[in-house]
């Protein structure tokens, strides 16, 4: 059975007016999908009132903590020494979410204890991956 980590974190949603609004977020990492992390945002933070989960590369989060990273729907960059910003793009608009760097670093460290950097391919279940790719799971 694959190990799954779950870590609650406190984030700050940056409003279009530049104000910050506290936001509980759940960070997840699973050895069954070792290249990806998940961030789940509560329904009250979404425009349509539905809980939202973003899935993106663990390496993107790692890279974005020290220098701007990302293209497409998710961008990550450091904000001073103590914070990291994640920018999410969807058809509904753009959301800016700021985290304390220490919380993200703790989460990444825990994920690397489960699957070390560079060991992702070794821990992937080929049959499960093919089944997902072909629409069977």
Task: Give structural notes.
With 137 residues, this protein is of the alpha+beta class. It has one domain: Transcriptional Co-activator pc4, Chain A (Roll), CATH 2.30.31. 24% of the residues lie in helices and 41% in strands. The chain is built from four helices and seven strands, in the order E-E-E-E-H-E-E-E-H-H-H. A seven-stranded antiparallel β-sheet has the order 4-3-2-1-7-6-5, with helices on both faces. The protein is globular, with a radius of gyration of 15 Å. It starts with a strand and ends with a helix. The relative contact order is 0.17. The mean pLDDT is 87.
Helix-strand blueprint:
Blueprint lengths: L3 E11 L5 E11 L5 E6 L10 E6 H7 L9 E6 L3 E8 L2 E8 H14 L5 H4 L2 H8 L4
Antiparallel strand pairs: 1-2, 1-7, 2-3, 3-4, 5-6, 6-7
